[in-house]
Amino acid sequence: MKIDSFSKEDGFYPGAFDVPPLFKSPPQPLQMLKWFLFRFMWYQSLLWIGISVVCYHFFTPQITDFRNFDFSALIYLWLRNATVMLLIVGFQHFYLYTHRGQGKDYKYDTRWMARKKRSFTFNDQTKDNMFWSLFSGCGVAALYEALMFYLYANEKIPTVSSLPLTAITTVALFWITGVHFYANHRLLHVRPLYDFAHSLHHRNVNTGPWSGISMHPFEHVLYFSLPLIFIFLPASPFLTTFSMIYLMLSPSPSHSGFHRFKFGQKEVAAADYFHYLHHRYFDCNYGMLLLPIDKWLGTFHNGSYEDHQKIIEKRLDKSGDRK
Ligand SMILES: [Zn+2]
Ligand SMILES: [Zn+2]
Hints:
By secondary structure, the chain is an all-alpha fold. The chain has one domain (21-319). It contains eleven helices and two strands. The chain has helices spanning 29-58, 71-98, 125-153, 163-188, 193-196, 217-223, 238-249, 251-254, 273-281, 293-297, 305-319, and strands at 260-263, 266-269. Strands 1-2 form a two-stranded antiparallel ribbon. The structure holds zinc ion (2 copies). One zinc ion binds next to loops. One zinc ion is lined by residues 201, 255, 275, 279.
């Protein structure tokens, strides 16, 4: 077993973080509202909603096109997904890793993307990550969207057209994703599923924007299954498109490897140290910080120096390497 070490000089160390205010004791609902609006929604979540609105209204075939499961409509969705990823994820990769626009400022790991490494498809981390994201990821997402639209077009599932209800469901979906992601991700860490599927995502210890949905097709089938809840929960078909765009794009800044993006004097939040720690240590932080299921189930790593030491000590004990 490889034993990690932790030094604050390794790369950028953002320090410890805490669970959102609602889950502290005592709970702080007002602080939570502030956290949700200004830390969670602004700016990334609003960006995913905005891109989804544009995609749904301008770059999605009519629902009626799916009545007979039109194959060309499915291919269109696939190409739309790949185009959106090339624009949004490609921009981040180009700026951070090709152009190296901010050098290593705010970078958690001092290494760049791996090249000539046999563990990656094509022996190249970026090409590997792009391949699994664009072919399997965008393809599986298109299949789910087409399937849901087929069900809507044939009136097999209920639909809602109210704008306020759609807005409420959009916000609720972030929380639902917290449960859905924790459940499927935790399951994927059980052997043999980990070896068969999830280990492909974990080839990326040092992650980049394209690592976000670089997953085995089996993991994509679980990961993108979120809109199946709309078979039971009446919602606008927009929520299906939003689920797919959100699940495709939101992991790109969170895996970017940079805690903040710097554009000249301007800076905005970027990666998620919570999930970076999952890639570094594998057996902590399985969920999302918005809904800290890890805290309740004892797998929470808060990024503190003490938690780093604890996890390293636990590994030393397990491996029997302690001197
Ligand atoms: Zn990940
Ligand atoms: Zn994992």
